[in-house]
Amino acid sequence: MIKQIAVFGIKLLISICVVFGIHSIILFYLNISIFQNLLIPSYFTNYFLAILIFFTLVKLKRKYLDLLGFVFMGGSFVKFGVYFIFFNPVFKQSGTVSPQEATAFLTPYLLCLIVETFYLIKLLNNKL
Question: For a pLDDT cut of 90, what percent of the chain falls above it?
Answer without folding.
Answer: 75
